[in-house]
Amino acid sequence: MTNKALGQVFTLRQIADYMVGLLSVGKDKTILDPCFGEGVFLDSLSSWYKNLIGVELDKELFGKFNSSQIEIHNTDFLSFVPDAKIHGIIMNPPYIRHEAIDKLDLYGISKASLRQNPLYKSLPANSNMYLYFIQKALDLLEVGGELIVIFPNSWRNSKNEQSLLSVINTYGHISMEIDVRTTAFTSGALVDVIILKIIKSHNCERTKKLELVSNGSTLIEIIKTNKSDNLERSKANFEDYASIRRGITTGYNEMFINPKFDKCTGCAKFIYPIISSPKNLAQGSSLDSVLIIPTHTNISKYPSLEWYINEYKNVILKKQEPSVLYKKITNREPDWYCIKAIDCHGIIFSYIIRDNMEFLLNSSEDLVRDNFYIIQPKIDKYLLLALLNNFYTYTQLEDMGKTYGNGLLKLQTYDFKQLYLPDVSKFSTSSTEKLRDLAKKYDKAKSSDLIRQMTEIIAKYEKIGAKDIEKRYNENKRRRLGGNVN
User: What is the mean pLDDT of the chain?
Assistant: First the structure.
């Protein structure tokens, strides 16, 4: 069983030490790590606590860990029953989506078996593995005990959000909520994560919200605020002006992107140009291609296409992945290889940023890969392009995004739903027309001078001046790219 199948992503020692430091239970109490992996939490805990228990499902990792001072078990945590009372739990639970849980049947774990356990009856059927781990951990804790957990931040604004909050509120409350704005894992995986401290007690206290950043050698806590709150703006929500979604996800790029097969008569109609990178939009640049076959297509009419599909069908069945396509094939879905083309007109935005932000108009209305968000205007597209490409918007997004190794910044769709834009109904006709004209120029030739000019027009309706907001944006960006954190 691979690390990927078991959802193993290992925590950096610096993050593990920080999480251990969040525990406030007595040093004589019993602390449990339900999935100890390489043992980073247990190693850190051993400097402070004597009564430690570790559980690990992976036999190989379990065999590598050697400590006579720690009680360890090679078993499934979800069915584990400890002998001792548990006062603290610290964990990085497996990152396994609900669709992949059945891959653990080798260990006697399946969605069906989990659903039969009364403890998990209240969880939705589409719960990811970390929800089961959190519920189990809270159930094991003594009253007054503490759970410190790091897991994907994608639970927010998702169907799992209310499920998780319901589980937590059944047992206790969230004491601390810490957005991690630095690399958290040894793999350098670009995962948006959060640390929660949950106390099993209904004597509620106000949740302390923090951001965790790094200046290289030291982790620094910052009290969480919306740093853009003091931007005086008319209250216009992003969703008043546009909708947002990710581009096309193939589920198997090797098969669908730039497909390699002899084009038979009529096959060309299934090959479409697709934008994969901002570089594809540069003048003279060529686009990638994507294979999109409509449902109910009789592929036997296209011999080389049929051969290509069957070859990849055999590869998927042999590897048993990608899991979504494997499941479709084994369920005998006739159109398992069909991808739905989506409407990609509008403005596109590469949501993983190294240096500069760019909102680009998809003038050709080509298909767009899931490297991008597609922003579809509800107002004039050039006016929206100007409202996005300015330092007021950039500053908000720089504040809201999550930072990772090498200065990368990642933005989620829910970040945009918190974005405020000026109320253009309060703009003069002259301002609106100038913004549209500047945006048209920007669409043809990107330049920082045009961004600055659009910012200066919007500045007429803001409390903070154009030069000050540009300075603030550049300072925040420099810090992300390696400057000192004050």
Answer: 88
Q: How far apart are CA 32 and CA 138, in angstroms?
A: 12
Cis upstream peptide for 303 (omega within 30°) = no
User: Which residue, among 163, 107, 101, has the nearest Cα to 131 in the 3D structure?
Assistant: 163
CA distances from 230 to 262, 355, 441, 469 (A): 59, 25, 31, 11
pLDDT (tens digit per residue) in 275-325: 998 777 766 678 999 999 999 999 999 999 999 999 999 999 999 999 889
How many other CB atoms are there within 10 angstroms of residue 303's CB atom?
A: 13
DSSP 100: G
Which structure tokens are listed for 113? 């078996």
Which of helix, strand or coil describes residue 222? strand
Predicted local confidence at residue 10, as pLDDT? 83
Q: CA 468, CA 130: separation in Å to the nearest integer?
A: 43
Residue 388's H or E segment, with its range, is: helix 381-388
Token pair in block for residue 274: 């697709």
Token pair 């398992």 is found at 336
Written as six digits, the tokens of 468 are 């000050």
Contact criterion met (CB below 8 Å) for 125 and 111: yes
Residue 413 carries which DSSP code?
A: H
Q: How far apart are CA 461 and CA 356, in angstroms?
A: 24
Nearest-CA neighbor of 198 among 127, 149, 152, 234?
Answer: 149
Kind of pairing between the strands at 271-275 and 288-291:
antiparallel
* Pairwise CA distance, residues 178 & 151, whole Å: 11
423 vs 400: CA distance, rounded Å: 21
Question: Which residues does residue 173 pair with via DSSP β-bridges, in sequence order?
Answer: 199
Is the CB of residue 11 less than 8 Å from the CB of residue 186? yes
Looking at this protein, which amino acid is placed at residue 222?
I
Q: In the beta sheet, which residues pair with residue 125?
A: none
**pLDDT tens figures, 132-161:** 999 999 999 999 999 999 988 877 656 667
